[in-house]
Amino acid sequence: MTLNRKNKILAGLATAALILIGRLFVIQIVDDSYKIDASNNSMVYSTIYPTRGIIYDRNGKILVGNKVAYDILVTPKEVSKFDTLALGKALGVTPEFIRDKMAEYYRNRRKIGYQSVVMLKQLPPETYMRFAELAYKFPGFRGQPRSIRQYPYNAGGNLLGYVSEVNSRYIESHHGEYKAGDYAGMTGIEATCEKYLKGEKGYKIYLRDSRNRIESSYRDGEMDKEAIPGKDIVATIDAELQHYGQELMQNKVGSLVAIEPSTGEILALISSPGIDVDVLADIGSHYNSILSDPLKPMFNRAVQASYPPGSVFKLVNALIGLQEGVLTPQTEYPCHMGYRYGNRKMACHDHRSPIDMEESIMMSCNAYYCYVLRSVLENPEYGSVPLALAKWDEYAASFGFGHKLGSDFPSELGGDIPTPELYDRMYGEGRWKATNIISLSIGQGEIGCTPLHLANLCAIMANRGFYYTPHIIKSSGDVKIDPKYTERRYTMVDTSYFPAVVEGMYRAVNGGFNSGATATVAAVEGLDICGKTGTAQNPHGDDNSVFICFAPKDNPEIAVAAYIEHGSFGARWAAPIASLLTEKYLTGGIKDSRKPLEKRMMEGVLLDKVNDK
Amino acid sequence: MNAYRGNGFLKTVDWALVVTYLLLVLIGWVNIYASIHSSEPASVFDFSCRSGKQFVWIVSALGIAGVILFIINPRAWESMSVLFYAATILLLVAVIFFGVEVKGSRSWFEFGPVRFQPAEISKISTSLLLATVMSQIGYRLNNPRNFIATALIILLPMLIIIAQSETGSALVYVGFVFMLYREGLSGWLLFMIGMAILLFILTLTVSPFASMLVLAGVVTLCSALESGKLKRWSLAVLPVITFLAFLPSIIKWASGMMEEPGGFIGRLRPMYFFAAAAVTGVLFYAYRAYRERSLFKLGAIASFIAGILFVMSVDFLFHDVLQDHQRKRIEVLLGLKDDPSGVGYNVNQSMIAIGSGGLAGKGFLHGTQTTYGFVPEQSTDFIFCTIGEEWGFIGAASVILLYVFLIWRILRDAEKSREAFTRIYGYCVACCIFMHLFINIGMTMGLVPVIGIPLPLLSYGGSSLWTFTAMIFIFIALVSNEKRYL
C-alpha cells in the first residue's frame, strides 16, 4: 500500500475511529467511576440554593436581608400509601389540597418520571419542624431549605423591588441562566443588581439504591458543587430618611426625591402610594390586588410619571436668558396681574411691579418669564423662532430634561421637551410664533418631566451648574459602579450665572412674610434653605403642588424635589413636605415650632381629590 | 460517450451502501423508541411519540431515496448545481428574517407542524457545486483564482450559518478540507489548521507563553527537518526553549529568595526573555532565508509571526467572537471552569449513561439513565447514550464501525469512479458524515465540546434524516449511472 493521499485519508479515518472506540472502551470498561450498575441505581440531584446578597443602606443598615423558609418536595414515584389527613395537618393544608396535587402528579406521571416536584413553597420554619418530626411516615416527601427575603425597615418598597419565582417567559429571555423554581429580582434594585445578588446555585449528587433509598454521595462528592452566596449591595438610600419621607407622603399621590448634590447619590426616592415591604415579602398573594388598585402602587411615579414641571422651570428659563445675553439680573419687567399678548392674557398673582430677576424668582412672576422666553425665542441672532427654539431645546436637554438621565434605575422615563417639528405638526410649518408656545415660560404646555428630573435640576442649582447622574447603588467590595456616575456633567449655562438665580431661590424661602416670597413656609432657621415653588396645571382636577429645594445654601448636602398631585399651590403641600425632609436629614429631627406643620402634613389626605378617569 | 453498457440497474447499485444505510436508520428508529420509553410503554408506531413520527420520516426518506434512484436523471445534478446552490443561499439568508427562533438561533422555517432547516440542504448543494466547479477541465486547486473560488463556495454558506448562531452546523463545513486535501490541497494547510487548534487550547488551558513556546519549537523543528539539520536544532534551539519553559518557575524562585518584594527580579517577566529570543531567532532565520534564497524559511518566519498574532488574538476571539453558551461549553470541556448552569451536567450524565452500559449493555429498553430522563435531548443529539447504555461496548463500537464502513465504502466508490464529479461529490459526502459522526459521538463522551449537531441517520428529526438520505442516494445514483453508461 502506497502512502498516497487517499491512503493517508483512510489512515486518518481509522485513527479517528480508534480514538472514538478507545474512549468508549475507557468509559465503558476501564473506568469504574461512570458505572451505575445494572441494579437500577441512579442519581439524585439535590439543588443547593445560594443565599441572596443583602442590600444595605448608605449607613450600613440592612434594608433587605434573608430568612430561611422551606419548600416541600415530592417524588411521586417514591410515595407509598400515606395518611393524607396527618400530612395535611402537619403541613397546615387541607387533605383535599394534597389529594388534588397527588392526582395531578398521577396525570403527569410520564413527564415527571423519577424527578421531584415542588408541592408547597416557602413554609415558615415552625411548620416545617412539625412536618420534619413526622417525615418518616411520608416516604417521598422532603423539605428543601431556601432563603427568602426579609425587610427589617419599612422603607423603599418600590425602590427595592421584589423577588419572585421566574416564569417561563423570564427563563426564555435569559437563556440558560435560570431554571423553573429559581427566584429572581423582578423590579427595583433587586432587578438592577440581580447579577450581583443572585449568587450561584450548587448541587449535591446522591446515589439511589434499587429500593429508592438514598445510599451515598456520588463519587464521594467529587462532582458536587457548593452554592456561592450572592454579593451584597450598598444602596445610596438613607433608610431613616426614606422611611420618614414615606410617612410624609402617606395618603397623597406623588413623589418625593432627595439627592446628594455633591455625588448624585439618591438619598430617598418615594413614590406614593407605594408598596409596603410586608407586601413585598409575599408578593405572590398580593399581586392581583396590587394590579387592580386604581392608584397603581406598582407604578414608580418618581421615575416613570411625566408631569409638567410648572413654575420650577422658570429657573431654567432665567438661566437660558442670562446665558443668551437677553436678560441680566438687573432687567426689570412690569406685571399687572398678568401678561397680555394679542387679545389673550397669561394671568399672574398680585405683587408689586416692576420687579428684577431675583424678585421674579422669589415671587414666581408669570409675566416676567413671558418677557424672558419671548426675548430668547425672538432673539434676532437665530433668525427665526423655530431655530431659537431648537437652541432652547439644547439648553433644556443639558439640564437633563427630555431624555433619560441614565440612572441605574430600571424603566426610567425620558420625559419630553417640545421640538420645532412638533409645533410644525401642531400648527403647520411657519404658522406659529413665540406667543403660541408662551406657556413653556412657566413650565406648562408640551413639556413633561419626572420628579427625578426635578430633583436633578435642584442638584444642578445646588452645585451651581453641574450634576452627577443620579444613582442608587454605591461601589462596595466587588461591586463597582459605572464610571459615568462619577463624571461631572455641566449644563450649557456658564456657572457664573447661577449665583444670582440661587439668590432668588434663597429669597423665595427666606424673604419673610409680606415680602411676596412664595415659599416662606419652607424656611427653617439656620438651615439656609433655597427653594422654588411650582403650581402645575392638572387637567384632571386641582393643580399639582411642586417644590424643589436644597440646603444649606453654601456647600449643599441635600437637594429635594416634591411633587404632590392635586396639592394645589406649591406652598400648600410640596414646600412643607420637602422642607421637613430637608430638616430631618440635616438636623436629625424636627424643631418644636414646626411640629404642628409636620403633624398636618402626615395626617393630610389628598386621595379623594384624585380623579384619574 | 453515454453508451449503454448493458449493466442492469440492480447490478450497478452499490447494495452494500444501501444495506448499511438501512441498518443505521433502523438502529436509529429502535433507539429513539428506547430513549423515549418509560415505565408505561407505548407502541413503537404511536404517532404522538417521537418513534412514531420517526417512522413517518423514515418512510418519506425512503420515498426520497426512490425518487433519486429511479426518477431523477443523475446527470441533472451537475447541471443544476449552480441554481440549486443559489437557491439554498437565498433560503439561508431568508431564514434569518422569516425563520422561527429555536433555542436562541434563527435557522428553522416552520410550515404548520413541519420544520425544516436550510442549513441541512446547503450541505448537499455546497457539495454538488464544489464537485461541479472542481471537476471542470483546467481546474487546478493550486491556481489562486480557482482556490479562492473554491474557498468562497465553502465559506459563504458557512458564514451565513454562523450569522444564524448555528456555529455547530457551520463547523461541519470545516470537514471539506479533507476533500480539498485529496484534490491536491497542500498538506501544510491541514497541518496549520491542526496547529491553530492546538495553540488555541494551549493558550486557554496553560498560558499564552507556553503556547508561543510550542509554536516556536514546532516552526523551528519543521525548518530543521526540511533542511536536514535536526542535530543542530537539538543542540541550539531545544536547550533555549527548554530553558524558557522553566523560566517562569526560576523567576518565581529567585524573587522568593530576594529580600524585598517587587525588586528587580520580581519585575522580570518570562515574556521579555521570549521576546528577546524570538527577535534574535527571527532575524537569524531571515538572514539565512535571504542567504539560501529559501522560500520555506520565509514561510516559516511568516507562519511564526502569524502564530504569535493568533495566540495574542485568541483571548479576543474567545471572549468577543464566541457566544456566551459556546464559550461556556469550551471552558467546561477544557476544565477551566466548573459549570455554573449545568453545561457539564449534560456531558456528565451522558458519560454516565454510556459508561454504565459496560461490555454488553443493560439490554433493550432496560437502560435506567436514559429512560428516566437524566440525559437531555436523548432522542436527538444524545441518541448515542441510549445505544451505549443499552447495547454496551459491543453495540456502540459496532455502530461506530458501521459508520466507518459506510464512509470507507463511499470513499472506495469515489476513488473507483472515473469521473471527477462523482469522486469529489463522494468525498464531500464522506466528509460531512465524518464530521457529524466525530463531533456528535465525541461530544457524548466528553471529547469534543457540546455542539448540537445530530448523528447522521440515527438521531430523531426529519430535516437531518432527509438530508443525509438525499446526500447518500445521490451518490449511489451517480455511481450506478456511471457503471451503466460509461
Plain-language structure description:
- The complex is a heterodimer of chains A (613) and B (486).
- In chain A, 34% of the residues lie in helices and 18% in strands.
- Chain A contains 22 helices and 20 strands.
- In chain A, helix 15 (357-363) packs across helix 20.
- Chain A is elongated and about 100 Å long.
- The model of chain A has no long low-confidence stretch (mean pLDDT 86).
- Chain B is mainly α and 486 residues long.
- Chain B folds into two domains: 9-189 and 331-485, no CATH class; 206-322, no CATH class.
- Chain B starts with 8 loop residues before the first helix and ends with a helix.
- Chain B has a three-stranded antiparallel sheet.
- In chain B, a hairpin with a 2-residue loop joins strand 2 and strand 3 (114-116).
- Chain B has 18 helices and three strands.
- Chain A binds chain B through residues 5-6, 8-10, 12-14, 16-17, 19-21, 23-25, 27-29, 31, 33-38, 40-43, 109-110, 113-115, 175-177, 200-201, 223, 225, and chain B through 38, 40, 103-104, 178, 181-182, 184, 324-325, 328, 338, 340-341, 348, 351-352, 354-359, 362, 366, 368-369, 372-374, 388, 392-393, 396-397, 400-401, 404, 407-408, 411, 415, 434, 438, 441-442, 445, 447.
